[in-house]
Amino acid sequence: MAGLLDVILGYECNLACDYCTITPAMRPRALAAAEVIAAMRRGRALAYDRIAFTGGEPTIRRDLLGLVRAARQLGFADVKVQTNGLLLGVADNLARLQAAGVTRIHLSIHTHEAAAYEALVRREGTYAAMVAGLDRALESGLPVVVDVILKADTYRRLPAALRWLRARGARAVDLWYVSLTDGNRDNLASLPRITEVTPVLAEALAEARGAGMTVRSLHIPRCLLGDDRGHAFDPGADRVMVVTPEATFELRDSRLAGHAHVPACEGCEHRAICPGIRPDYLEVHGDAEIAAARGQAPTIAATRRLPIVDA
Fold first, then answer.
1. CA distances in angstroms from 62 to 32, 58, 65, 107, listed in the order given
2. Which of 51, 101, 195, 205 lies 20 to 30 Å (CA to CA) from residue 295?
3. CA geometry: angle at 239 spanning 67 and 245, to 5°?
């Protein structure tokens, strides 16, 4: 029974994104190389045939090339690196990863405009490095999926971001909805209502389809995507085991996955395949949007509210 072993090597990163869920206390935690190899051996014994190295930022690990080689030697047929791309455009870093056995890249651009990007990642002078890494990845011949974050100050730029990506040669994009967990727990203002986002999302998806791009939407229930529900993507629907410095668990049990089904979900045609809505979203916005989509009255009120700012 094939599956993906998703290995979070550690939480240290060369960026400090303003929506990151990693707390300062988490950053020093990391898996030792021996622990990673032991996890890979267990994964192969359980028939996992794909592996992803992520973080934090995995490319800052000096032993990443060795871990990639070990993964291929152990029989993982597909080796993914999830990265912010800053180091992929430097020297022959990407070529070395490819030679070691990396078979695909997932690269997060966060957002595509230079000033907005550097404000979000909170590190000046990084936009050019991200673009160089993205271009190098797209030129490599490796399959590349670009990650874009949907949050209050980025979602309106999504149509332009997808046009920018297509012009650079990107053809596959994953859209991540911001999460209020751990380090981003109290950043309530970063979490827009889904119904505020979906009109812009619909515009972007229509353009992407016309341009031959594959775009997947994570964390937005199918009922709120309407005619765009075919773009819904639930990574936890597959067999995915996550290995972290603290624990090992199935991806569907992650706090970043949808866990909650509200009363309006009952009888929905998508109920069997929909993971539901994330609890952090319900805490801030309640279930009114989902209930309205199903023609019902809301039953769950928000328990956390945005602060009122005096004019």
1. 12, 9, 8, 19
2. 205
3. 45
How many angstroms separate the CA atoms of 49 and 53, rounded? 14
Angle at 230 between CA 225 and CA 234, to 5 degrees: 85
Q: Which of 311, 306, 242, 235 has its CA nearest to residue 275? A: 235
The span from the CA of 242 to the CA of 70, in Å, is: 18
Report whether 197 contacts 181 (CB < 8 A): no
Would you state the structure tokens that stand for residue 85, as one six-digit string?
């791309």
Q: In 3-state terms, what secondary structure has residue 218? A: coil
How crowded is residue 230: how many other Cβ atoms within 10 Å of its Cβ? 12
Q: Apex CA 233: angle with CA 7 and CA 254, to 5°? A: 40
Per-run averaged pLDDT (10 residues), the chain, 311 residues: 95 97 95 98 98 98 98 98 98 98 98 98 98 98 98 98 98 97 95 98 98 97 96 93 95 77 95 93 96 96 74 42
Kindly give the interhelix angle for 64-73 and 33-45, rounded to the nearest 10 degrees: 20
Domain ranges of the chain: 4-257
The CATH topology of domain 4-257 is TIM Barrel (3.20.20)
Q: Where is 45: in which H helix or E strand? A: helix 33-45
Region of residue 102 (phi > 0: left; psi between -120 and 50: alpha; otherwise: beta): beta
Q: Is the preceding omega at residue 56 within 30 degrees of 0, hence cis?
A: yes
Burial of 134 (0-12, 13-18, 19+ CB in 10 A): buried
pLDDT of residue 252: 81
d(CA 18, CA 214): 27
